[in-house]
Amino acid sequence: VYQSQTTLVSKLEALQCHFTWDLDTSRSKLFRCRERFEDFFTEDGHSWLGHIYNLRGFMEYKLGFTEEAQSFFNKSTEAFCQIRNADEGPWLVVNYGNLAWLHHHLGDPAESEAYLTKVDALMNEYQYPSQDELHPEIYAEKAWTFIRFSTDKMLLAADYFQRAIRMQLVMVEWHTYHVKGLMFASKHSSTGLGADILEKMRIAKEQDPENLYFAVHYLEHCAKKGEIIKDEACKLAREVLRNPISSYSGIKPLLRVYRNYVSVDEAIDLAEEVLKNHPDERYLMKCAALCYKWKIFFSDSPQKQSMVDRAISLHEEVISLYPHSSLGKKIDLANIYSKSTNGKVKAKQIYQELLKSDLDQAGKQMLYNNYAKYLNFQGQDRTSSLRYHMKAAEIPQQSIFREKSIKVLKNIRDKGKDRMCREIQTFLENLQEP
Ligand SMILES: *[C@@H]1O[C@H](CO)[C@@H](O)[C@H](O)[C@H]1NC(C)=O
């Protein structure tokens, strides 16, 4: 005899799992994230594989692909068993919770109940002394999920990792992720990284020396503090090159370190070298495209045609390989065209198409800010440029693009010379905070 529907639902709602964590799941975001996750390295034994599959299963479910969802949740179960080297344990609470929800949605109450019973059994066996604390495994998975999927919950994630670590000291990867959460959370703060976070990073790096991604980030922060890091960067490059390639391997932050503290030309050389070893990896194409963009955007002298051609062909390829998450690359491509001698018409055409396309709020904001800059850079239409900055600022969503547009508008207002000055002043006064 199954429990009544309402008891079942209230039990499901009390679970700790992706279905109850209040994750923002707009379709465009899901499609974008899915493409990002496809680039994750999934070799057996990767310490976050169980978490990755759980999140991917949840995203598939939200997109309406229940078969794929089931298959990812199954893979998550397997991955956890393999990584923790045990058939069952508290690390499966979230996974079983997801499966209980999935079967509930598939109209299979018996199967849903079976998973609820498994969760209950685990909770009883691995009970935590304090009623209001979660098991550290659950804190860790929740925190990891927020860091990967909900950038607005970074501080909460850092707090969860802190709790998980306090309760269970042995999981080295948790330390690195905890520090990572703190890093992300303080990325946009005006004071930058405090000495305490840098010290935590240093310790985490020593405890988890295999984690190149983290080593690269640490190096970057040392460089920011004024240390000379070129030799160390080259050493890391050799290590990153030896490892299998994925977005976890640290290649992208390493290229950024090269650009900032070695040279953009050497960043391009490194990207091309990695790409030569893995010519079909779309993720590496994306990294290489980024390096060419830096080269073209941030140098004053005109570029060789061969450089521009390579930049364009890489961008076109990346755009076709990431159909759901290439808005930024399309904008970059338009800007590359606009900077090249014969590309003005093409640039205009790309922008016109993007303005007509169906974008979510965040996408529109990014586009409007960039289009405003493009109009101003072309020197043609200053009024339209300011109008697009206003359109970007108006969208009630906090982002770097919004901030940049507001900054431009405030500058115009403060200088007081433009004929739109008064209008902009009123606009800024009436602007709602998101
Ligand atoms: C997932 O695992 C269950 C139970 O082991 C099995 O019955 C089911 O066919 C699997 N589903 C998929 C899609 O892999």
UniProtKB/TrEMBL annotation:
<dbReference type="Pfam" id="PF13424">
    <property type="entry name" value="TPR_12"/>
</dbReference>
<dbReference type="GO" id="GO:0051607">
    <property type="term" value="P:defense response to virus"/>
</dbReference>
<protein>
    <submittedName>
        <fullName>Interferon-induced protein with tetratricopeptide repeats 1-like</fullName>
    </submittedName>
</protein>
<keyword id="KW-0677">Repeat</keyword>
<keyword id="KW-0802">TPR repeat</keyword>
<dbReference type="GO" id="GO:0005829">
    <property type="term" value="C:cytosol"/>
</dbReference>
<comment type="similarity">
    <text>Belongs to the IFIT family.</text>
</comment>
<dbReference type="InterPro" id="IPR011990">
    <property type="entry name" value="TPR-like_helical_dom_sf"/>
</dbReference>
